[in-house]
Write a structure and sequence with these properties.
This protein has helices spanning 3-6, 22-33, 40-50, 56-69, 73-89, 109-126, 144-160, 179-190, 206-215, 228-236, 245-250, 262-267, 286-297, 301-314, 319-338; strands spanning 9-15, 92-99, 131-139, 167-171, 195-200, 219-222, 241-243, 272-274. By secondary structure, the chain is of the alpha/beta class. It has a domain at 134-338: TIM Barrel (Alpha-Beta Barrel), CATH 3.20.20. Helix 2 packs antiparallel against helix 5, helix 5 packs parallel to helix 6 (109-126) and helix 14 packs antiparallel against helix 15 (319-338). The protein is globular, with a radius of gyration of 19 Å. The two termini are 14 Å apart. The model has no long low-confidence stretch (mean pLDDT 94). The structure holds zinc ion (ZN). The site of zinc ion has 6 residues, from strand 1.
């Protein structure tokens, strides 16, 4: 194992459905449809999950597969467990997963969320090296009624799983929606102590970024197009940016790794961390992302250690959990000194 794999890591921006590896997708396909690819649809599935250097369209096809394959409690539990296992194998010691509660033909939204939460609870016993939290998401593109329903459900579930549900995410295509409408709905979760990790500044819209800052987002998802006075505000108020290098490059929201906004944020000493977003869809891992980060922007081993240590502070974990993470991290640093 190399340094990046051995390094204890913190993952703060990972969508459940985007974090299904090719092998997990294949296993789920067998679980749901049986072994043999019988139709044309199955053949393209096997082509895409075996493929390398996929086009963006093919990458997004993986999301569609993931949604289809996790539409029943059994496969959803299988997928959730596989994602936690994969992060644990990559030596991630703390993970905040996100997912939008979905009603499907086979389950209600309550069943969806309960399945994910119960699987996390069980996986904590089976993979004790990784602490897992959940940030249920609101998908903007699904409208206000869905958002209202989801927040009510999350607040209900928060009473049953206060140790796992730590915050909420706002994601999805923003077109035709106004953040201020969602702010009123999210406020109900905020006043109950849930933290906010909003996708923010993914598109150029200074007014919306400002509205999100006024609302009080605890972290910035991507923040690709944040500049000017908003950038200053983020710095002064120490709001961390969740940077997802490969995801942004593959989705072409940035031109290249070299052009990624991480570079200027790190240089200007912003609060910033590295995350995967959707490691299954974009075929990466947190170790790979940190390696790319180090190689592209010239971060030393010491810098990478500092980056991870800072990230502990940005988690929505309790103070006791943060202390535990710091302890694990110190142990790792000691092993480096010994060698
Ligand atoms: Zn995201």
């Amino acid at each position: 194992m190399d340094f990046f794999q051995k390094l204890p890591k913190i993952e703060l921006h990972a969508h459940l459905n985007g974090s299904l590896s090719n092998s997990t997708l294949s296993e789920l396909h067998v679980l749901k449809y049986g072994k043999e690819p019988a139709t044309e649809r199955d053949e393209s599935f096997y082509k895409i999950t075996a493929g390398q250097n996929l086009t963006l369209k093919e990458c997004f096809q993986k999301f569609k597969y993931a949604h289809d394959l996790t539409d029943q409690p059994e496969t959803l539990a299988y997928a959730t467990r596989a994602v936690i296992r994969d992060f644990a194998v990559d030596n991630v010691i703390y993970l905040e997963l996100r997912t939008t509660p979905k009603a499907t033909y086979h389950m209600t939204k309550t069943q969806y969320l309960t399945t994910v939460l119960e699987t996390i609870r069980q996986a904590q016993k089976d993979y004790p090296t990784v602490t897992v939290k959940l940030l249920p998401s609101i998908d903007r593109s699904k409208g206000l009624q869905e958002a209202t329903e989801n927040v009510s459900l999350v607040l209900e579930m928060h009473q049953l799983y206060p140790d796992i549900i730590k915050g909420m995410d706002l994601s999805g295509a923003p077109y035709g929606t106004k953040f201020s409408d969602f702010a009123t709905i999210l406020e109900r979760a905020k006043v109950r102590g849930l933290k906010m990790a909003l996708h923010c500044g993914e598109f150029p819209d200074d007014d919306e970024v400002w509205e999100m800052f006024q609302f009080g987002t605890d972290r910035i998802g991507h923040g690709t197009f944040i500049g000017g006075s908003n950038l200053k505000f983020a710095k002064t108020n120490r709001i961390p940016f969740e940077c997802c290098l490969t995801s942004n490059v593959k989705c072409s929201t940035v031109k290249s790794y070299e052009d990624h906004h991480f570079k200027k944020l790190w240089k200007a000493k912003h609060e910033v961390c590295i995350c995967t977003d959707d490691f299954g869809v974009f075929d990466t891992s947190l170790s790979d992302e940190l390696r790319i980060c180090s190689e592209t922007y010239g971060l030393s081993t010491q810098d990478i250690l500092q980056l991870q240590e800072n990230t502990i502070e940005y988690t929505f974990a309790s103070e006791a959990e943060k202390q535990q993470l710091t302890k694990l991290f110190d142990l790792f640093k000691n092993t480096l000194k010994d060698n």
